[in-house]
Amino acid sequence: MKKVKADPKGVLTGSHYLDGDFAIAEGALAAGCRFFAGYPITPSTETAERFSERIPKVGGIFIQMEDELASMATLIGAVWGGQKAMSVTSGPGFSLMMENIGLAVMMEVPVVLANVQRGGPSTGLPTLTAQQDIMQARWGSHGDYEIIAICPDSPQECFDLTIEAFNLSEIYRVPTLIMTDECIGHMHEKVVIPPAKEIELVERKWYQGPKDQYLPYKPDKDGIPFMVKAGDGYRFHTTGLTHDYRGYPEINAEWQDQNVRHLVDKIKNNADKIIKIEEDETDNAEVVVISFGITSRIAIKAVQEARKTGIKVGNIRLITIWPFPEKRIGELAGKTKVFIVPEINYGQIVLEVERCVAGKAHVISIPHLGGGVHNPDDIFNTIKEAVK
Amino acid sequence: MNNEEQFEKVKNPIEDFLRMDRIPHIWCSGCGIGTVVTSFVEAIKKSKIDLDKLVVVSGIGCTGRVSGYLKLDSFHTTHGRAIPFATGLKLSNPELKVVVFSGDGDIAGIGGNHLIHAARRNIDIMVICVNNFNYAMTGGQVAATTPTGANASTAPYGNYEYSFSLPYIVEAAGASYVARWTALHLRRVTKSIQEAFKKRGFSFIEVITPCVTLYARRNRLGQGLNLLKYYYDNSDIQHGANTKEIDIKFQGKLIVGKFVDKEKPTYLDCMNEHFSKVIGDRYQLYGRR
Fold first, then answer.
1. Which chain A residues are closer than 8 Å to B274 by Cβ?
2. Residue in chain B nearest A230 by alpha carbon
3. Does the interface ipTM go beyond 0.90?
4. A237: which chain B residues are within 8 Å (Cβ-Cβ)?
5. Is residue B261 part of a domain?
6. For residue B200, what is the domain's CATH number?
7. What is the C-alpha to C-alpha distance for residues B248 and B233, in angstroms, rounded to an integer?
8. With contact defined as beta carbons under 8 Å apart, do B108 and A99 qualify?
9. Whole-number Å distance between alpha carbons of B104 and B167
């Protein structure tokens, strides 16, 4: 993995007052993204607006496509053309992008997509928050696969984690999703953008060997194949079909097995390196609250209130939601009696927690169906009830 | 030397441009797609363009398999999305020559919206649309291009819908170059592709081709030769014809030719010119070395 410093041209070093959507655009520019293709959708549009304003002066492409199907396809083309590329969307657009997220997975294309979540199903709550696309992020496109998804809890993290998303997508050649939400997207806070020389970026895993020996899908020692770009004389082929190391279609069970295992294992086997969680006072905790994104900012209030009353409450904030930190949750399950999972949906991540806990502890879901955030009292009261 | 040995010794004239390790191809005998591929390769040879910079993008379907057989940087993408994929390649790396090679169902059916928007933006790519009047890969279903009255597996009593006239749509949407030929017009197709290689802007070449196994069989039109005979008897070359008046009736007259060939700034020309004007010296021209 070759590391390089950010190009100062795209880095707006300084202290700013930005909303989460703008911070995503700045994070992308700092990460060296010079290609944005998207379609306007509330509450994500500000990222596209910011990018369209900034990119002519930095040098690159902003193109507003005819829909999200086209946006995602255009990004994949742009990456094969040699660029770093991203888009941003929300619920209905996320659904349309699923088709070509699958293509990016199959072609092993590093690409970044932010979903500023709103309430659904369908058109739902265009202007109000939710965390309802968490399972869709994991399973939305057809077939077996793995992606990486991360959840910022502030505009500052929107900036930082967008850079992280680009780095992860390049390391693992996988679409990486930034699963934020309307609250974070429209929340204005201080965002500190460091000097370019302090921003470390991962360079694409470029192939260096002889041109006639390039195999686009032969995993390297670390499991990740090398990449080239179009126009460099490799005359390579790539397809959305099940394929061999040359990228040629292979319509049989053997290569299907190889393809799916490879796509899943390259993430699964590196889960420890990918996963980031924030954890405090989980040792000896009677109750552990697990949350992510905007909900973690409400949950911490309830956790603090409960601690004041003498309850031993641990707190976990999931920064990475996919791959899920199953190992750590499993470890804690032996020591903690109760897990409480507040989330702005009818219970999605709680299913993962239940899976990892595997009956060794009690798991309580606190759903909020969208359009607002939890009342900290609801979480506080649930904690109190749980230890009774 | 027996026939087999003799065959081994004879080199296919376009072999150097094909992934021979993928031959034999999947196309039926009598299919017109291979003919269009031959015309394409002939055009490459005559145009002397840099093969390293030539990229082919296909969607899904019988014609979608073209990208897998050409020994170029080649992308077999999702159904209908070859044009936006190609748009990404071209805009990300403007020195590439990007060709979309796909079928009518892919480009004008499921991908119809992308077709008109790429033409509207005058993206500098070439689209070769092989039109065999049906969804062939999935077994001969009715398409947006199936002539009214023709039979298809999902129009077993005949197609009662109106069909698309592709040159008309693409011209109306803003393409710089529009032509239509049949698989009989080998040299004309080659020439159109050569012209499109030189063209800056959105070029669209429709090639009507026989689908012997499905469309022709269902409609009792005979073998490949019968279809070529139909093209021979009914094609009328009318360069510059009004594209409003060239729609295709079932087994009717085929107006072919070059309908549109105009100079028009491309998407990147427009972008560079506009930003230079409104932003001034701080704007660096994109894609120019």
1. none
2. B73
3. yes
4. 19, 67-68, 73-76
5. yes
6. 3.40.50.970
7. 15
8. no
9. 12
